[in-house]
Amino acid sequence: MRIVFLGAPGAGKGTQARRLEEQNGWPQVSTGDLLRAAVAAGTPLGLEAKAAMDAGELVSDRLVMQLLGERLGRDDCDGGFILDGFPRNLSQARLLGELLERSGQQLDAVLMLEVDHGVLMKRLTGRRTCSATGKLLNIHFSSPEELAASRAAGGELIQRDDDLEETIANRLAVYERQTRPLLEHYSGLLRRVDGLGSPDEVSARVSAALEPAPGA
Ligand code: AMP
């Protein structure tokens, strides 16, 4: 299947997209991950994208489409893919439509992960990556055992540069202004999923939302 995950920063798109990849084999394609890799590698594209990312603004469509076009052109995307964090505005949605049309493809489903504002703030401000294991943790929600396991592995809890409080507020505002209008654009394909609860609970809802409608 070709799936788009919509939802505010912190809604759990990355976690759920990775789970779907494990279950079904469709690769998770995260433009945020592709951009962070370009920044880390110091490519010209990464250098150009960095300032917008640090400010919580959207990177230009030109740069994002360049990365996305390359990624979707790889063989592992032939049987389907899960877009995580893309499209972020109407113009990207139109460019995606054109890209897919050129190869005779179309989207099968758009999943919207719904999480209220207070929970998003807690998820984003608390989000950390363990430097030793690479595991995603949250200082508000991870169990004491998980946090202790990271310390025992000698890991430091690293916060993403754009998870600082001022940047988070801007990322949420950018989402409301630029990305939320996509809900209407994709109304025919849209399936809303309650994003509150444990990753397992949300994952069960995501799988149910991807089942064909009865009689379809
Ligand atoms: P994410 O990991 O999806 O939250 O993305 C992190 C940052 O990368 C965003 O705040 C943007 O600066 C940039 N970014 C990721 N995806 C896109 C996109 N589709 N269009 C523009 N900028 C993006």
Give me the secondary-structure topology.
Blueprint (H helix, E strand, L loop, with lengths): L1 E5 L6 H12 L3 E3 H11 L2 H11 L6 H12 L8 E4 L5 H13 L6 E6 L2 H10 E4 L5 E3 L5 H9 L4 E2 L6 H15 L2 H4 L4 E5 L4 H12 L6
Parallel strand pairs: 1-3, 1-4, 2-3, 4-8
Antiparallel strand pairs: 5-6, 5-7
Helix pairs in contact: 1-10, 2-3
Bound molecules: adenosine monophosphate.
List keywords for this structure.
216 residues; three-stranded antiparallel beta sheet; alpha/beta; binds adenosine monophosphate; single chain
Question: Number of helical runs?
Answer: 10
Sheet with most strands: 5 strands, parallel
The poorly predicted ranges are none
**Strand fraction:** 5-15%
The hetero compounds bound to this protein are: adenosine monophosphate
Derived structural class: alpha/beta
Helix content: 40-55%
| Rg from alpha-carbon coordinates | 17 Å
